[in-house]
Amino acid sequence: MSPRRTLLRGTLAAVLCAAVLPAWGTPGRDRRNPAPPGAEAATAAYMEAVRTDRRALRAFLHALPKGADLHNHLGGAASTELLVDLAARDGLCIEKERLRAVPPPCPAGGRPAADVHADRAFHRHLVRAWSMQDFRPGRESGHDHFFATFEKFEPVEIGHMGRLLSEVADRAAAQHQFYLETMVTHATAGVAALAARAGFDPDLGRLRGRLLAGDGLGRLVARARAAMDRSAAEFRAASRCGTRRPRPGCGLEIRFITQVDRSAAPEQVFTELLLGFELARRDRRFVSVNLVSPEDGAVALRDYGLHMRMLHRLHAWYPRVPVTLHAGELVPGLVGPEDLRSHIRQAVLTGHAQRIGHGVDIGWEDAPRELLETMAARRILVEIPLVSNAQILGVAGRRHPFALYREHGVPVALATDDAGVERSDITAEYERAVTAHRLGYRALKDLARTSLEYGFLPGRSLWRDRGGFVLAEPCARERPGGPGPRAACAALLAGSAKAAVQWKQEVAFARFEERVARLPGAVRW
Predict the structure, then answer these.
(1) Which keywords, in A-to-Z order, does the entry hold (predicted)?
(2) Which of 97, 87, 90 lies closest to 129 in space, CA to CA?
(3) pLDDT for 439-455, tens place per residue?
(4) Nearest CA among 114, 69, 106, 66 for reference residue 87
(5) Taking a C-beta distance cutoff of 8 angstroms, is the pair 264, 272 a contact?
(6) 431 CB-near residues (< 8 Å, 6+ apart)
């Protein structure tokens, strides 16, 4: 490779320092991605110049402000190395056949997780079992290997939520994200016990009354909030928040989504959903609910319509709690044709989802064009984890509906899903958007802005409306990255958590573009 095609990689300073970056020649204009004026134009042109240089593109995209991660499972987001290390610290054992972490004493053939420190082959073996590292489809599909990882490290995840969050938040902040919504599970044993006592009743109003009576659910809410308090303390300690040397994640805005196991019995699913809605009503740290576990599971398929009806009733009781749902994480062959026809539609129309995750099977839904038009009109966002969809479903490139959603005006945002299990990160998602879907710089910028706009942070938006990124009136005459905002705009930012993180990103974009525009050879239109 010639010096002209060389880029030093590393920190943001290394990526964007004029002293170490090459003087790229003038690239040809990309008619699909016309360059806007000024520093933004120079940045767009620079990205086109490095589009085919994998290492240079990766460095550019790593430094790019990337909004929010709205589809993130905390346990699956943490690095496998951290999970293995915590298993060793906790004195857990590893089963011989299933490679699952279990409490001591070690079962026959098992061995202490702490052996990973002296046995690197054992460490590598465990990392491969607990993630997609080095995975090659064979007797086991990507789908099956991926979903089998979670039960293997679940005992580790349960006791260290704050420590996991510290690592995940650091990684998001280091990649220039400003907001994280991560999915967590609460007090499963207590939920199961309460659900079993209540039993299932098809009259969901009566069932809700039974669960709320006697403060059984209230105790679960209190327990979940107390657990979050402990996790928050663990997070602050691990991240050194409030000290002279805080870790990057301390500055990240974070909220939580209650994840509900859709493979459980109906009474437990409803109880977990009700707990999630009550938490979102009572505690600002919790913003939504979601259904998790494989959408193609036998119980998930059987009860899909029932779950949507549950959400319909819960929406009537808790209209201010937004819903995001896994829907359409399916492909032909994984399920029969009947199960491809309506999951996204039911999530939107019956389950009142304001966002859906994955949405891969949209092309097999009944009347897909009509559904796309409905989603565009209602501004239903699709959370798209491109790496996850490739690994689990084998859907990538032109076979992925990412472009289809965009062509029909459906808002989309890139997300990671389970970056630790995937051995990936948010930068890789943006890289796929560039290399596989040919997006230009302005489109990436819109994706980052969209992710913050559709987050469930409270408060007024920085933008005038969701039809475009025009600053709302209080800030219409301000210039992010310039002098501090005047009184009216400052008041908006002070009174709105959403507008505040959006402004933070706009300032970051301004500084990012200014640095790129100063590079030797950067093109100015």
Answers:
(1) Hydrolase, Metal-binding, Zinc
(2) 97
(3) 999 999 999 999 999 99
(4) 114
(5) yes
(6) 57, 58, 61
Residue 435 in contact with residue 443, Cβ under 8 Å?
no
Task: Let me know if 520 is exposed, middle or buried by CB neighbors in 10 A (0-12, 13-18, 19+).
Answer: exposed
Residue type, 42: A
Torsion of CA 345, 275, 419, 346, to 10 degrees: 0
Angstrom distances, CA of residue 317 to CA of 270, 296, 349: 13, 29, 17
Structure-token pair, residue 326: 């896994």
The single-letter DSSP state of residue 131 is: S
Where along the chain do its domains lie? 1-63+459-525, 80-141, 159-453
Which helix H or strand E contains 268, and what residues bound it? helix 266-282
State the DSSP code for 113: G
Percent of the chain clearing pLDDT 90 (strictly above): 88
Nearest to 498 by CA among 470, 450, 456, 467: 456
CA distance 488 to 496: 13
Rounded Cα distance between 174 and 362, Å, is 34
125 contacts: CB under 8 Å, gap ≥ 6: 99
Strand-pairing partners, residue 255, are: 181
Render pLDDT for 283-338 as a digit per residue (tens, 0 to 9): 999 999 999 999 999 999 999 999 999 999 999 999 999 999 999 999 999 999 99
pLDDT tens-digit map of 465-511? 997 899 999 999 999 998 889 999 999 999 999 999 999 999 999 99
Class in CATH terms, 159-453: alpha beta
Instruction: Identify how many contiguous H helices and E strands the chain contains and give both numbers.
Output: 23, 13
Predicted confidence at residue 414, as pLDDT, reads: 99
Residues contacting residue 199 through CB under 8 Å, at least 6 positions apart: 267
Say how many C-beta atoms besides its own lie within 10 A of residue 342's C-beta: 22
What is the 3-class SS of 273-328, one letter each residue? Answer: HHHHHHHHHHCCCEEEEEEECCCCCHHHHHCHHHHHHHHHHHHHHCCCCCEEEEEC
- The helix/strand/coil state of 81 is helix
Give the C-alpha separation, 22 to 516, whole Å.
Answer: 12
Q: Which helix (H) or strand (E) holds 192?
A: helix 188-198
User: Among candidates 35, 30, 25, 36, which has minimal Cα distance to 2?
Assistant: 25
Q: What is the dihedral of CA 144, 145, 146, 148, to 10 degrees?
A: 80
Rg (CA), the chain: 23
CA pair distance 130, 86, nearest whole angstrom: 13
Q: Is the dihedral of CA 195, 196, 202, 207 positive or negative?
A: negative
User: Smallest Cα–Cα separation from 480: which of 504, 450, 462?
Assistant: 504
Task: Give the Cα-Cα-Cα angle 253, 326, 368 (nearest 5 degrees).
Answer: 120
